[in-house]
Structures are given as structure tokens and as C-alpha cells.
Design brief:
Elements (H helix, E strand, L loop, with lengths): L19 H10 L11 H18 L3 H10 L13 H12 L8 H13 L9 H11 L17 H9 L13
Helix pairs in contact: 2-3, 2-6, 3-5, 3-6, 4-5, 5-6
Length: about 180
């Protein structure tokens, strides 16, 4: 795992020029799969939901968490083991930055890192990266794997995984 330091800092407000309603269709239209995919847009929406829930306690940067949900699996080439798909998703995010959305360099660095290492990284101390990874891992039940607390980076992720269900926690997500 890459251990390069990511600067940490307080959660930053979502920028006004980050239009998720326009960005989601742009990214989903290019996705390789037609129809349902266990790694496709339905999964991305659940990761977004999970990340927003986790962020209520972790203080993660909501814009980075939402962008991670969209890009982390967006460049998968198949439904099986797909080496490098996170890095391809990160590069796709980089290619759209500045035209489809804006994000400061330090925030983009977190997004890029989270995407690249989401399948290889085990834990991370940065609350935003940790929230991204836990949000993805909390959706493993879609492929028959129950998320285990030991694989979570955040206390809240461990709490949810130990409980075995997101359902009792979902009312904590603030309205969009």
C-alpha cells in the first residue's frame, strides 16, 4: 500500500460549482455495463448514501466523499477482479476536473488517493479517506460478503459493521 502522507484538515464546505445532478449522468453514461452491474451506478449511489451517513460522525469532506462514490468503480472493465480499476477511476476524475467540476488541489489529492487505493488500502487515519473506504466496504453485502468491523477505518464504520445492518442508522443522513 502507498503510504504517502495526505494532508489532513477540517471538513471543507461543498463548493457551489459542484453540480452532482449534471456530473452523475456524465459519468454513468460512459460506464461499460448495460443493465445491472454489481459495481455500477446503483452501487455508487449506495456508497454515496453510506458515505453521507458516516460523515455525520467522522467529519469527512462531503464533496470528496460524494465524488469518490461516483468515480471509484467508474472505470471498471469487468465484474471480476479488475486490477487497476481504482487508478483508472482516479484518472477519469482528473480528466473531468476543471471542466465538469472544480476541486482544490488538496481535496483532489484525497479523492485521487481514495480511488486508487480503495481495494488495496486497509485502513487510513484521514477521516475523509477512511469514510470513503468504509462507505464502499459497507456495501459488500451486495456480493454476499458481510462487512467485518476489523476492515473498517472509522469508529462509526466499525459500529455499523458490528451491528450488521445500516437500516437503524439511516435516519441520521441529513437531507440533500
Amino acid at each position: 500500500m502507498n503510504t504517502r502522507a495526505i494532508p489532513s484538515g477540517p471538513r471543507q464546505p461543498q463548493p457551489m460549482n459542484l453540480d452532482f445532478d449534471s456530473l452523475w449522468p456524465l459519468v454513468t453514461m460512459q460506464y461499460h455495463a448495460t443493465g445491472y452491474s454489481v459495481h455500477g451506478p446503483e452501487h455508487w449511489r449506495r456508497v454515496e448514501r453510506n458515505g453521507l451517513l458516516l460523515a455525520t460522525r467522522t467529519g469527512a469532506d462531503l464533496a470528496v466523499v460524494r465524488l469518490f462514490a461516483l468515480f471509484h468503480d467508474s472505470r471498471r472493465e469487468n465484474e471480476d477482479w479488475d486490477e487497476g480499476h481504482g487508478a483508472r477511476g482516479a484518472e477519469y476524475a482528473a480528466s473531468l476536473r476543471g471542466t465538469a467540476y472544480e476541486l482544490s488541489d488538496d481535496r483532489f489529492e484525497r479523492l485521487h488517493y481514495a480511488c486508487v487505493w480503495h481495494t488495496d488500502g486497509h485502513h487510513h487515519a484521514d477521516p475523509t479517506i477512511a469514510t470513503c473506504w468504509d462507505a464502499d466496504r459497507l456495501d459488500l453485502n451486495r456480493v454476499g460478503i458481510m462487512p467485518h468491523p476489523s476492515y473498517m477505518s472509522t469508529d462509526f464504520g466499525r459500529e455499523i459493521a458490528a451491528y450488521g445492518s445500516l437500516q437503524p442508522f439511516l435516519q441520521a443522513i441529513p437531507p440533500a
